[in-house]
Amino acid sequence: MKRIGLFGGTFNPIHRGHLQAADEVQKRFPLDQIYFIPSATPPHKEPDVLAGAADRLAMIRLAIADYPLFRASDVEVSRPGPSFTIDTVCYYKSNLPEETELYLIMGVDAFLEIHTWKSYVNLLKLISFIVMSRPCVEFIKSPHGWKILEDYLYRQISDTYRFSVERSRYDHPDNPPLYRMDIGLMDISSSQIRRCIKAGRPVDGQVPPAVDAYIKTKGLY
Fold first, then answer.
1. Can you give the pLDDT at residue 49?
2. If we measure between CA atoms, which residue out of 197, 202, 34 comes closest to residue 103?
């Protein structure tokens, strides 16, 4: 039985923080593969700040070249219309062996908007979640860091979730578990990288060399 992680996002561009987070998740669970899934038309992002979907997919392929358990997926790039996560999860559940264990990987800030996502109630019933901490000392070391997630779960999603300290996860009587995971500190963001590029500052320490070269060659951002 395989354990597969689905790591979606704009990846605009993919950076070392994405790679470190995915690597830590893969080792912690452990997962047989992680699919990086760039959104073609993300419903919650302004399209004018996005590089083209084909460019973002190409940068993912370059970034993960040295990670044998990582895969780049064009499932959302190839699908017309807005990129809804529920459609992507249904695609993988239909196209992978039935016994495959699927995990949806995302940051805590993305999860805190999940009540605005299409068919989020069904999504929570379909797949286990791995929710990653914010990459900052204040969040990881603060006793209140994860409280924002717990409060959100109880208030906005369901007050029947219960946290298991031993498994570091929230269990629900009807839904798959929701895991939480502290990731290593790496203060990098795609928006920060785009600002650096626009200002003419180097980003070679924040993205893999092949991605840096691609951005320069294509004149992105």
1. 78
2. 34
Contact 39, 10 (CB under 8 A): yes
Tell whether pTM > 0.85: yes
**Residue 221: half-sphere exposure toward Cβ, Cα within 13 Å:** 25
1-5, 145-149, 153-157: least confident range: 145-149
Of the chain, the end-to-end C-alpha distance in Å amounts to 41
3-state secondary structure string across the chain: CCEEEEEEECCCCCCHHHHHHHHHHHHHCCCCEEEEEECCCCCCCCHHHCCCHHHHHHHHHHHCCCCCCEEECCCCCCCCCCCCHHHHHHHHHHHCCCCCEEEEEEEHHHHCCHHHCCCHHHHHHHCEEEEECCCCHHHHHCCCCCHHHHHHHHHHHCCCCEEECCCCEEECCCCCCEEEECCCCCCCCHHHHHHHHHCCCCCCCCCCHHHHHHHHHHCCC
